[in-house]
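Dear colleague,

Thank you for sharing your sequence with our group. We've completed the structure prediction you requested, and as agreed, I am returning the results in plain text so they can be pasted directly into your records. Please verify that the sequence below matches your submission; if there's any discrepancy, let me know and we will rerun it promptly.
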Amino acid sequence: MLTRNWCRYVLLIFLCLPFFAIGQNTIKGKVIDSSSSKPVPYATVTLLDIKQNILATGFTNDEGLFTLQTNKTDSAIVEITSVGYRVYELVISLNTSIDLDNILLAAATGSLREVTVIARKKIIELRPGMLVYNAENDISNKGGTAADVLRKTPILNVDAQGNVTMRGSGNLKILINGKYSGQIARSPADALNMMPAENIKSVEVITTPSAKYDAEGAAGVINIITKKGYKNINGALELSLSNMEQMFNPRISIATGKWNISLHGHLHRLRSKEDNYTERIQLENGLPALQLNQQLQKDNAAPHGSGDLAIVFTPDSLTELSFGMNAWFGKWPQSSRIHTAVRQPNGDITEQYDQSLDAKNSFLGSDINIGYNRKFKTPGQEITVLAQFSPADTKEPYDLVQTDANKLSIYEEQNSNETNNREWTVQIDYIHPLSARYSLESGVKMILRNVHTSYTVLADDDPQQSGGLQPVPARSDLFDYNQDVWAGYTMLKANFRNNWYAEAGLRFEQTSISGIFKQSGAAFNNQFSNFIPTATLSKKITEDQSVSLSYTQRLTRPYIWDLNPNANAGDPKNIVTGNPDLQPEIAHQAELTYGINKSDGFFLNTALFWKRTNDAIIDLTTTDAEGISITSKQNLAGNTVYGLNLSSSMVLSSRWSLNGNINVNYLDYNSKALQILRTGWAADVDVNITLKLPRDRKSTRLNSSHPYRS
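Please find the predicted structure tokens below.
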């Protein structure tokens, strides 16, 4: 149980960390060529103590400027090296911050000898409005999946199954190269476990998305950037074997002349086992009335795979044409064995049976896109056009058999549920520079979704006496659903003096939804419009410190599986069904962030945030007098969240690194429909430790996630 005093201690400790970093001594200067008086870019600047131990290291920028920081207060040595120049050394005293002004590097004489350059590529970058995790610079990502990569990405939490949350919310919009992914939309956890880590270049985490992004995804946007082909031809075969999963990842890339082609494959067999016990007590007038006990066992093997083809053609330096196709397929069974017992308050068993569920879920889908990007002669001016078609078919049938203590069948049911989804997307984005400091970005987007679902239920209430399975008309129908979204946005960006940056934008989205049940004739139709304002103001304090204030509004539309009225009675005591009457929820959120990103590998991002959600979509579970619960999503609540998020990573040694997140939230929950008013604290901690074994041949990852609630 998390106490309020404990929360105060955590807040105090982590809020003080940035100020400890600010109090360090700063050494800055400018490195120039002694003969030409021009800046020397990318020179290595190292701060050493008297015993030649490294205190800090960095590089000069394009203007020859550098900044180092240290908490040491005695004498030290500034060493500057660059290819073609003599080594420069200067002894300084660290009792205060020092400005070395111009430092002259003299050209070296004689031929160059072989040298070994040791430098650490930045793994995390802070940019206005987003945080970037450069996965390709982290060697420990080899051999894993996209879920493993996101597990080490700041701000994000990923559980053992691959479910991603940001600041306690799983309502995220996950993109691949800035594009919608039907594979991700179907099941984010499954899709992330199907994507090899080796294919990922970087991950962009956008907590307050600008007007450029779709309003969907209340918690924020994650954009996964994949690698492009390198020069010439290269490829690899990756094989992983264990008792629970087997994986095979072939890939090849070709880059020659104006063409860049890459092909990635993924074959994966994942075995999942589950064994849990559930006890539910139903109250009547405050007293126990009914007790449900269930013992569930699952042991399923899920063979699946995916393939990704990307072709990029650049006829000249200003034009790029692209074609991409991602396809996925497989089976994800949910078969189970359940023992159920219903007891009266006095302990008498009134109902008891064993159930066998054979659920052979399967899926097949793809995303096919073509793109055009044109840069103009005016720097910064460009237009991008994207068109994408995303067909996907999902089958979720199950066969259910219940038997009594004598192993005789007492109930049988078959449910055939098949969904065909077709989605079209067309998007145009244009950037126009107004001046050297100002630019205008605008665009339009169209999304057309058409979903066809057919579900049929056959049941037999008395297998020992009846003639077999019979149709159940009340639970069988054809459901057609359409969702069309028309959007446009405009955004102004400004780079001010003294490293200030600001952007403000407005997005408009018009949504039209309709649905019809073919057999019953019931239909619904609804339209709604939303104006989505966004704004960001940021300041780069130093080369490795920045602060940002931002606001955005987000929209969450229900997905087809939230609307599908087919009742999944695979567990007849716990039925799950969709709600065709669901409305979108709207969230307002703001945050203040402060980030430190040191050249020695230390990173800290501190964020204070606020979020208000109206018409929140929640899972509502009701239980009848017979102990049968029905769960569906409803618009029944509003809530306000105040929170602190701390994301940090650090290099402990040449082989050890550590990263993790701490979330502390205060929730104010209000549902007039349910007559519930609830407030309270919540916190969760996620820690990852990475150990690089000798010779860089392997790496091992330890993950620990501990939630604390009150």
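Summary note from our side: The two ends are 5 Å apart (CA to CA).

Kind regards,
the structure core
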